[in-house]
Design brief:
Strand content: 15-25%
Number of helices: 16
CATH class of the largest domain: Alpha Beta
Radius of gyration: 19 Å
CATH superfamily of the largest domain: Glycogen Phosphorylase B
Mean pLDDT: 92
Strand order of the largest sheet: 3-2-1-4-5-6-7
Number of strands: 14
Largest sheet: 7 strands, parallel
Shape: globular
Helix content: 40-55%
Oligomer: single chain
Structural class: alpha/beta
Order of helices and strands: EHEHEHEHEHEHEHHEHHEHEEHEHEHEHH
Length: about 350
């Protein structure tokens, strides 16, 4: 059986690493890379470190306005689907690559499997929320990371083909966390000690495209009394320059800007940080699994279970609120298991069979 997997962004590469490893034991997988993330530190390094097979097709779409980017992806994907005639199209998460793959497959009547189905922020101003909703309503096999996702789908009238499998990122993280301790030297390179710094990431449009929110977040980072390491996403760096939010220096007081990291280095930084500040859904989960307190720079999250468990707090882009949590937030001593047992990838492959 032939499966076409559509990838385009960093989180999808991580999820695919866990699934593709098992998928290829019994099925033929053809990988389409849309080129949504094309910077080496955001793309190729993940294929190299996680052992993902090289893409069979790379569309090289790159960045651009939402509609133009999604449309270009759909056109490129459609041509390949017509040529390859797969039994299934497999998509991950909530990016433009996800919805482009789902739309192209649906119009050709090819069954769609959506891994990480059912997530909702209930904020339709987020492009990711639109992508999730559209993809779920087009999909034939909806593989959910948690019970809340299953409930969300049921409320929208989607019950057929829905399965609770857990989160494949947990599988990938377990593999990477072990490897990173032996192979990553990022702490030594940056001169950092365990639990003596904070790790920050900002990439979502609601924060990067709003000058006021971005300045508030940076203002909070610069007032923190501990070192803050900030790997800067390429689009975030462009926004910083456009808004004159940061000069050409690589460091402002305690705040150090660095280039994006490969997955092993990033996992090493996450597990060694005292606290993580982020607007990334994937990093919220990784922080929870690694037992690191997380301050989320959004007003809502799809990963509500991490908040209910007391290990994640929502600070939005409020400078005072961010600083308050950095200085006083202490999670509870217990950390219940969330999002499966670390064998989600095997369950996904079994259901595809």
């Amino acid at each position: 059986m032939k499966i076409i997997t559509i990838l385009g962004a960093r989180p999808q590469f991580i999820k695919a690493a866990a699934v593709s490893r098992l998928l290829r034991r019994s099925m033929r997988e053809v990988i389409i890379h849309t080129g949504q993330h094309y910077d080496r530190n955001m793309s190729k390094v993940f294929f190299d470190e996680l052992g993902i097979p090289a893409p069979d097709y790379n569309l090289g779409i790159g960045s651009g306005p939402q509609a133009a980017q999604t449309g270009a992806m759909m056109a490129g994907i459609e041509k390949i689907l017509v040529k390859e005639k797969p039994a299934w199209v497999l998509v991950y998460g909530d990016t433009n690559s996800t919805v482009a793959g789902a739309l192209a497959a649906a119009k050709l009547h090819i069954p769609i499997c959506h891994i990480e189905a059912g997530l909702r922020s209930f904020n339709r101003r987020m492009p990711e929320e639109i992508n999730r909703i559209v993809t779920d309503h087009l999909s034939d096999l909806l593989l959910c990371p948690g019970r809340t996702a299953v409930v969300n789908l049921k409320k929208e009238g989607i019950t057929r083909g829905v399965h609770l499998v857990g989160d494949v990122m947990a599988d990938a993280l377990a593999y990477a966390a072990k490897r990173s301790r032996n192979h990553s030297r990022i702490l030594e390179k940056l001169g950092l000690a365990e639990k003596k710094y904070l790790l920050a990431t900002v990439h979502r449009a609601e924060n990067t495209d709003d000058p006021a929110r971005l300045r508030n977040i940076l203002s909070a980072f610069s007032q923190i009394e501990e070192p803050v390491i900030f790997p800067v996403h390429p689009r975030t760096r462009n926004c910083l320059a456009a808004f004159n939010s940061v000069n050409r220096k690589s460091q402002i007081d305690n705040l150090k800007f660095i280039d994006p990291l490969g997955y092993l280095d990033m996992v090493r930084m996450e597990q060694s940080a005292r606290m993580i500040l982020t607007d990334s859904g994937g990093i919220q989960k990784e922080a929870y699994w690694l037992g690191v307190p997380c301050v989320t720079l959004r007003n809502e999250t799809e990963w509500v279970e991490t908040v209910k468990a007391g290990w994640n707090v929502l600070a939005g882009a409020d400078c005072k609120r961010i600083l308050k949590f950095v200085r006083s937030f202490v999670p509870p001593s217990n950390r219940p298991p969330l999002y499966g047992d670390g064998h989600a990838a095997a369950k996904c492959v079994t259901l595809l069979k």
